[in-house]
Structures are given as C-alpha cells and as structure tokens.
Write a structure and sequence with these properties.
It is a single chain. This protein is mainly alpha-helical. Helix content is 74%, strand content 0%. α2 packs antiparallel against α3 (71-106). It holds the Pfam family ATPase_gene1. InterPro entries: Atp1_alphaprobac (IPR016989), ATPase_put (IPR032820).
Length: 118
C-alpha cells in the first residue's frame, strides 16, 4: 500500500468517526438551566434544617443562661421552623420568577402561573 492511499483511508475513517460522534452526543439537560429539580429540593431541605438547627441552638443557649428549660428551646425551635419555611418560600418564589422571565424571553407564557403579575 502506498502512502497516498493510506492518507485517503485515514481521512475517510476520521470523517466517519466524526459523523458518528456527532450523532451520538448526549442530549443537553432538559432544564437547560443552572438548577435541576433535585438541586432545588436539596437547597430547600437544607434551608429548613438550618432554620431548625439555629433555632434549637439559640433556644438551648437561652435556656442555659436563663435557667428556663425547656421554654426557650420550644419557642426558638418554633421560630427557627417558621424562619426555615419562610426562606423556602422565598426560594420557591425566586425560582418561579426566573422561570417566568425565561419563558417570556423565549416568547411563551407559563400557563401554570397563578400570579398575573409574574
């Protein structure tokens, strides 16, 4: 076999491989954005647990200082839970706002939105 024939065969093989690679590339993520549903869910769970943990810590600290065991623990646990839920709701509102803005930028209206202003 001569060198020019080998070069032609190598180019053909490279072209075939390139075309196969293009057809077998993995599809882009469906969401196409920075967040996936699982990431959002874990973020919200973390926010709730952090609120509870901070509330428990503050409550235990006040109970130790004031000697009011367990009243401050109960009070601040409930306040921490409320703060965690509020933070989760703010995160959900921010994500919904970003989705509606992206839908408007793409030229479609999000039919699932309850808020006519969003």
């Amino acid at each position: 076999m001569t060198d020019p024939e080998r070069g032609d065969r190598l180019r053909e093989l490279e072209d075939r491989l390139a075309s196969l690679r293009r057809t077998q590339e993995p599809a882009a993520p469906k969401g196409g954005g920075k967040y996936t549903q699982a990431n959002i869910a874990w973020q919200m769970v973390t926010e709730l647990v952090a609120g509870l943990g901070i509330g428990v810590g503050i409550g235990m600290g006040f109970d130790a200082i004031l000697g009011t065991r367990p009243w401050m623990l109960v009070l601040f646990t409930l306040l921490g839970f409320a703060a965690g839920v509020k933070t989760m709701m703010n995160t959900a509102a921010d994500i919904q706002k970003k989705k509606t803005q992206a839908a408007r930028a793409a030229g479609t209206q999000d039919s699932g939105s309850q808020d006519p202003e969003a």
